[in-house]
Write a structure and sequence with these properties.
Length: 135
């Protein structure tokens, strides 16, 4: 299998922290200083493929790295993942990015949507019902 993130597991120059089932690594194309990814060591595509031990280990490493990044950069840390079309690697990976703003500010500036917009209860219910059609 050709997977850049499986390869990253063995690239010590990128390794920030290793836990039993997951690692934190400097991302191949960092957006800024402090941009890292947390990945399971086993090649999986989505969260529901992780065992309970792997899932707990991944969350533990995210928590550990949140504290490290907070100490290192003092900023907010945005944690996100891409599932689907825009992921650069199929291997499940979670980005951690020190940021002056939160995810709301990043998405608002990226996608040109209002930072905060009140949504009616009816609109909220429509959103919920649309999602549940696929459940
Ligand atoms: Zn992989």
């Amino acid at each position: 299998m050709n997977c850049g993130l499986c390869d990253a597991i063995n690239q010590d120059y990128r390794l920030v922290k290793e836990f039993r089932h997951s690692i934190c690594s400097i991302i191949k194309w960092p957006l800024k200083l402090g941009h890292v990814i947390v990945i399971p060591k086993r090649h999986v595509i989505n969260f529901n493929e992780l065992t309970k031990d792997e899932a707990k280990n991944l969350l533990d490493l995210l928590g550990y790295m949140s504290n490290i990044l907070q100490k290192a950069f003092g900023d907010n840390t945005v944690i996100h993942t891409n599932i689907g079309l825009h992921r650069s690697e199929e291997h499940l990976h979670i980005h951690m990015l020190p940021s002056k703003g939160g995810i709301r500010e990043l998405v608002s500036s990226l996608e040109g949507v209002p930072l905060r917009e009140d949504v009616s209860q009816e609109k909220t219910q429509e959103m919920r019902d649309y999602i549940l059609k696929f459940a």
